[in-house]
Amino acid sequence: MLIREATAADWPAIWPFFHVIVAAGETYPYPRDLGEPAGRQMWMLPPPGRTVVAVDPDGTVLGSAKMNPNSTGGGSHIASASFMVDPRYARRGVGRALGEHVLAWARAEGYRGIQFNSVIETNTAAVALWQSLGFEIMTTIPEGFRHPAKGFVGFHIMYRRL
Amino acid sequence: MLIREATAADWPAIWPFFHVIVAAGETYPYPRDLGEPAGRQMWMLPPPGRTVVAVDPDGTVLGSAKMNPNSTGGGSHIASASFMVDPRYARRGVGRALGEHVLAWARAEGYRGIQFNSVIETNTAAVALWQSLGFEIMTTIPEGFRHPAKGFVGFHIMYRRL
């Protein structure tokens, strides 16, 4: 698996699984009916943000991550990131590889920490993955997320100092 | 003191104290050199957001608040808000009146909670005010904010269920 900078030419390979994940509405607080142009604008970030893809040796896009300052001004030394792995390629370490890549990027860019603003508590695989990469659950906003099947559930704010 | 909807005609009265507060860089993670057009776009929110002003009986604008959903999709039932009080009219209860107004607005709009994403811990007057209005410090991101005089300080994520 290789992780490389995403280009505009990668978006057609990202959109199908991005769309499936967003439309399911279970893991991200994005509008479930988010259209393709708005999705592209949200995911394919210009500097100081950055978007990467994880590809297998034949070039298949397995997943993608975007990373960016979490805030501006006096808050711009904290990064944030979001991750999407094609469900067809789950359980292959794609999310972990993307997470490790984001940690390396944030360190290299001089960020002092990474904050995840909204990790849905029912997304237990993601919570466990981020914990294994050194992120802590700083707090949980109770009933902060409306899950389409489970109703109101909490979301975690997770953080890792760099 | 009256709190009413802000209109485009109020912006010239908001900008001077908005600019002073943003340029000081002590209480909001906004770019300190934020220009007037970008400031206007950031502060004067279209629906579903909303911006109000607190005015005294002669019409002087004493402060302003903006309020908005904190997120989209499955997170759109949590509100957020930001507040600016003209330093010349501090200690008159303007912030409290704006805060109470935002609480009433959020309840009326059916939000289930209000989340403040970044209350700088050195802004003790604001922290105390929000606590007195029922907000809790959910967590503090250590060194999450670079204060121009005090260096790296924490910021609180505060929340109140409605």
TrEMBL record, chains A, B:
Keyword Ligase on entry: no
InterPro entries: Acyl_CoA_acyltransferase (IPR016181), GNAT_dom (IPR000182), Mito_N-acetyltransferase (IPR052742)
Signal peptide: none
Gene source species: Streptomyces chattanoogensis
Keyword terms of this UniProt record: Transferase
MF GO annotations: acyltransferase activity, transferring groups other than amino-acyl groups
The keyword Cell membrane is assigned to this record: no
Lineage: Bacteria, Bacillati, Actinomycetota, Actinomycetes, Kitasatosporales
PROSITE patterns: GNAT (PS51186)
Domain of life: Bacteria
Span of domain N-acetyltransferase: 1-162
Name used for this protein in its record: GCN5 family acetyltransferase
